[in-house]
Specification:
This protein is α+β, with helices and mostly antiparallel strands. The chain has 5 domains: 19-207, Hypothetical protein af1432 (Orthogonal Bundle); 209-363, Beta Polymerase, domain 2 (2-Layer Sandwich); 493-563, no CATH class; 589-665, no CATH class; 673-747, Alpha-Beta Plaits (2-Layer Sandwich).
């Protein structure tokens, strides 16, 4: 028995050493200065520190830091400092070693990165998000000082997602949710496109496993036909590139599974109608003597001699790179069999930046005279967000995420200087992007020499001039005019400061009135005033008083006399907005267990008899049986059911992961739900009768409401129909689409 255990340990030790040698081999294949001794020292230290600890999958814990380190060097392209930080990233949290120990044994920079990683360990979106807000701000601050913190964290998250299968379902939903909510957009913003795509795919795989498997199978079936088409499309391109004398390689890019599902879902089309599955990437070695930009256009010209280009689908990211550093020239060509194919033209340098993001971006900077890139500018804006962060952690996250998701457009100043700004930005957003004072004093703008309001949405190519006056001050409705993180942050900071002053003025006014009656602003007296005006906290009372929204002369009429102490204590103990029992946990049994004692590692079955009592369907997404769902237990122990792809659920998964439970539908054929179908088709006489026949005769459903709009021979109808589950909807849609005049049927 002992011999078997020793053999098992020896085998594991051999596996660990094999993985470490693979890490060193990856490192030797880079252009980084070789610091093998430092990396070996970090590995030995981490290996000893994690001795005897295992991951949930059962493997030795050290295999995780080793895997993260390999991602750091192979897939992101970082060097020894980041590799050592990856190897050591869990040591401070999981052992008795401190950041000071790391600094003494290694370097201050490694210690700084490990410290940054330790602060955000376990996710910055833990059960109590507000308590994690300061950690997230520390992450951003560290990120603005040394981006390697977030790059190593990205590698850590990627490996966790690759090994998520060993976690229980509720934990999978939490981790996949926060990955999709923040890490994938952050990877996109940092230019880590391959990692971003994999994170999105893995999130989708664990949130919608059945749909993932179905699309994966359909892609496998389609693979042979896709390969044949790819060869037919690329053969003339290869001949042309050889004729031009270029060293190059071609790469087929198949649309990711999550992107395919998003398109199927948003357009309500089957897999077979997603026609842009295939894209082609041409990566060339530039010839000396001609700029990379010019050579991209030369290749574009050569391609369009072979295939016709789509006139409205050219994307020029070589003249104006994206804010995350991405450079390429995109063109969509009409290939064989009448299929459009997007072709991405990149130099080797552009491809490295697209594959490895920030690390490659800085690798290709030639010296101090290089222009500051849009990526560098974005890093600087992070510090600005930290100057006046949101008091609420979720609001702070939402503001920061505005910077992650935004696509860019290009606009011009009056002098012709080009500026990058988020798509959907207003004239007021642009004023704040130039300078905070311009935004705060802005009264209007001129776009293309014509006067426009502050809310005007900028279009790419607009030339914009900001008009200001010293007498102007921001108004609350301005928050509705802006969409960028910088503008929202600056306006909220201004209103917060203004509100603080108004609140102080209101407090002074109330205290002066009390002083005239020889009363001190004691707690009981202020509570009496709050009660009189129906306010639940002092700050609201003072703020409304300062704004002149309550009649302060009523305070003098209030009779201040001692009240029964027990009543007073009872009032203070009452929760705001409800009776004293409203926060008591509800312990309604479901399948023999209590809601507050549910085993959250298991999947809870949602049976019909408990609908509306033990569990409630969330109003934000209104799920029905058959939808992919999860459960959220709120502070009052109420169980709400959300669709897994619901926007509100995305926040809950990211911020209150410990409250998420795995749920699944039991058979539902007694309860009915009203769902709306959008039906589009040709406006031909009798088509409405055909639709009604399908719904009532073939399906046996009830229609509660119909709204139809017609225009130029096309109709769009909204039909509110009673169904039991998603199976009913799929069957109904399938039968309605059999009507010749119907073009599309979509669940709204």
């Amino acid at each position: 028995m002992m011999q078997n255990e020793e053999q098992k340990l020896l085998t594991e030790e051999e596996q660990i050493q094999f993985e470490f040698e693979a890490l060193l081999e990856d490192y030797r294949n880079t252009n980084h200065r070789q610091k093998i001794e430092l990396i070996t020292k970090a590995f030995n230290f981490a290996h000893a520190a994690h001795k005897g600890i295992r991951r949930r999958s059962g493997e030795p814990y050290i295999m995780h830091p080793l895997a993260v380190a390999r991602i750091v060097v192979r897939e992101i392209g970082l060097g020894s400092t980041s590799i050592c930080s990856a190897l050591l990233h869990d040591v401070v949290e999981d052992t008795d070693y401190t950041v000071e120990d790391i600094e003494n044994l290694f370097t201050p920079k490694i210690a700084q990165i490990v410290d940054g990683l330790t602060k955000i360990s376990g996710g910055i979106f833990a059960e109590k998000a507000s308590e994690q807000a300061e950690n997230f701000r520390k992450l951003l601050l560290t990120m603005s000082e040394d981006i390697r913190v977030v790059l190593v964290k990205m590698a850590d998250r990627l490996h966790n997602m690759r090994t998520l299968g060993s976690m229980p379902p509720a934990k999978q939903f939490k981790i996949a949710g926060e990955t999709n909510y923040i890490y994938a957009p952050l990877a996109h913003r940092l230019g880590l496109f391959r990692i971003k795509t994999e994170l999105e795919n893995l999130s989708f795989k664990y949130e919608h496993p059945d749909k993932y498997q179905l699309i994966e199978q359909k892609l496998a079936v389609d693979e042979e036909a896709r390969l044949q088409f790819f060869n037919e499309f690329t053969n003339p391109i290869k001949a042309k590139l050889a004729e031009m004398g270029y060293a190059y390689f071609l790469k087929e890019r198949v649309k990711s599974i999550s992107s395919i599902w998003n398109k199927m879902n948003s357009k309500n089309i089957p897999f077979e109608e997603v026609f842009d599955l295939l894209a082609l990437r041409i990566v060339f070695e530039p010839k000396p003597g001609t700029s990379e930009k010019d050579q991209c256009w030369m290749l574009y010209s050569a391609l369009t001699e072979i295939f016709k280009p789509h006139p409205e689908r050219i994307r020029d990211w070589v003249s104006n790179p994206k804010a995350n550093g991405y450079e390429a020239l995109h063109v969509t060509l009409m290939g064989p069999l009448g299929r459009w194919v997007e072709v991405q033209i990149r130099s080797k340098r552009m491809n490295d930046i697209a594959e490895k993001g920030l690390a490659a971006h800085y690798k290709y900077k030639s010296g101090e005279d290089d222009d500051i890139s849009e990526l560098d500018k974005w890093m600087k804006t992070i510090k600005e967000l930290l100057e006046s962060p949101e008091p609420n952690a979720i609001d702070f996250m939402d503001t920061f995420k505005l910077n992650l998701f935004a696509s860019e457009i290009f606009v011009f100043t009056p002098k012709g200087e080009i500026k990058t700004i988020a798509q959907g930005a207003s004239a007021l957003d642009f004023a704040f992007s130039l300078h905070s004072d311009l935004g705060l004093r802005c009264i209007g703008a001129k776009v293309n020499h014509k006067l426009v309001p502050l809310s005007y949405k900028l279009q790419s190519g607009d030339q914009i001039e900001i008009i200001t006056t010293k007498k102007q001050s921001p108004m609350p409705e301005w928050l509705n005019y802006v969409s960028t993180a910088r503008a929202k942050s600056k306006l909220r900071a201004y209103f917060k400061k203004e509100e603080k002053q108004i609140t102080a003025d209101g407090q002074r006014m109330i205290e002066e009135i009390l002083a005239n009656k020889n009363l001190k602003p004691e707690n009981e007296i202020i509570v009496r005033i709050m009660n009189h005006f129906n306010f639940t906290d002092r700050s609201t009372l003072y703020l409304q008083a300062g704004r002149g929204l309550i009649h302060l002369d009523e305070i003098a009429k209030i009779t201040f006399k001692p009240k029964d102490q027990n009543v007073f204590i009872k009032y203070l103990k009452m929760p705001f907005g409800g009776n004293s029992d409203s926060k008591q946990p509800k312990t309604v049994p479901i399948d023999g267990v209590m809601i507050n004692k549910i085993d959250r590692k298991k999947t809870l079955l949602l049976t019909e008899e408990y609908a509306g009592t033990v569990y409630h369907l969330a109003e934000c997404c209104l799920p029905i049986p058959g939808d992919d769902v999860l459960g959220y237990v709120d502070e009052s122990e109420n169980l709400f059911i959300h669709k897994r792809n619901c926007r509100e659920a995305a926040k809950l998964k990211s911020s209150y992961g410990q409250r998420i439970i795995s749920v699944d539908w039991a058979a539902h054929k007694a309860l009915s739900f009203i769902q709306t179908l959008e039906i589009k088709g040709i406006d031909k006489q009798g088509v409405l009768i055909e639709i009604l026949k399908v719904v009532s005769e073939k399906f046996g459903g009830n229609i509660s409401k119909i709204t139809i709009d017609t225009n130029d021979g096309i109709f769009v109808g909204l039909f509110s129909i009673t169904v039991h589950d998603t199976e009913d909807i799929e069957l109904l849609c399938k039968n309605i689409k059999k009507i010749k005049e119907i073009n599309s049927v979509q669940r709204v």
